[in-house]
Amino acid sequence: QPLHTLRNAEKELLPGYHQFEWQPALKNVSSSWDVGIIDGLSGWTSSVDDVPADTIARRFRYDVALVSALKDLEEDIIEGLRERGLDDSTCTSGFTVVIKESCDGMGDVSEKHGSGPAVPEKAVRFSFTIMSISIRADGEEDAVTIFQEQKPNSELSCRPLCLMFVDESDHETLTAILGPVVAERKAMLESRLILSVGGLLRSFRFLFRGTGYDEKMVREMEGLEASGSTYVCTLCDSTRAEASHNMVLHSITRSHGENLERYEIWRTNPFSESADELRDRVKGVSAKPFMETQPTLDAL
C-alpha cells in the first residue's frame, strides 16, 4: 500500500477521527486546522490585549464537534430508523438535527498559588446539546423524529465546544473568541453535512437554537444594556416605570432584526441627535455591537 493510504487507515482508528465533507464547502472556515483542539482565538489574536493569546481559550472546530457528537449517536440513529419502520438504505438524505446552544459564566477559577500565565480569573463555557434528529422521507409531508434527547438539561448530554478565560461581562474579549464560532455556525446553516452513519453516506442539515443562555448572557450577546438598565426586558421596550404600572399587558415587540437596526442607528446617528435623544430612540440597545441574531426566546 502507498504510504498515504496507510496514514489514512491509521487515522480512521484514532478516537474522535471521522471523515466527513460539507456540500457546498463551508465558507469562512479554515480547512487547514488540525481536527483536534484549537486555540480559541483561531486567527483573531491581534484583537485581544493584555493576556497571552494562546492561553485564553481552547475549543473544537464547531463542525468537527458536531460530527463527533453524531457519530456517538450512530446506534441511536439506526435504532430510531428501525423502530419507525423506515428502510435504512433509502434514508440517506433529509436528516435535520436540532442543536441547543448554551453559554454561561463559570465564576471564579483563580489559581491558589498563581505561578501560571496572567489570565482573567473568570471562565466562560460555550456548549451544545443535540436535542433531536428527524428525517423527512421522500414523498412524505411530515418529518419523523428518530432521536429525541431524553435528558436535554443533563450535564451528560451537553457537549463543551469552547472554554475560555474571560469574564462574561467583558464584551470585547467574548466577541473576539465567539466571533469565529458564530461565523462557523452561520456557514453550516447554508450547507449540508455528508457523513457515514451505519455504513452509508447520509446528509444532515442543522438548526441552531440559542435557548441555553440565561438572561445576563442574552443581554450580552444581543448588545443590550446590562441588568441595571432603565429598559428591563430583553423582549420589549418597557422601562422600569412602565413595567411597575402595568404588570399584565405585555407583548413581545423586540426582535433580533430590530435590535440590529437600532444598533446601526446608534452607530450612524442619522438624525444627528444628542446622546440622550439617541439613547431614547434605541431603547436599551447599547453602544456595543452584538453577535446573536437568532430569533429564539431566551432561557427565561
UniProtKB/TrEMBL annotation:
Gene assigned in the entry: RAG1
Domain V(D)J recombination-activating protein 1 ZnC2: residue ranges: 231-293
Domain V(D)J recombination-activating protein 1 DNA-binding: 1-20
GO molecular function per UniProt: double-stranded DNA endonuclease activity; histone binding; protein homodimerization activity; sequence-specific DNA binding; ubiquitin protein ligase activity; zinc ion binding
Domain V(D)J recombination-activating protein 1 RNase H: start-end pairs: 97-229
Residue ranges constituting the V(D)J recombination-activating protein 1 pre-RNase H domain according to the UniProt record: 21-93
Example GO BP: B cell differentiation
Domain of life: Eukaryota
PANTHER family on file: V(D)J RECOMBINATION-ACTIVATING PROTEIN 1 (PTHR11539:SF0), VDJ RECOMBINATION ACTIVATING PROTEIN 1 RAG1 (PTHR11539)
GO CC aspect terms: DNA recombinase complex; endodeoxyribonuclease complex; nucleus
UniProt protein name: Recombination activating protein 1
Any Pfam family the entry gives: RAG1_pre-RNase_H
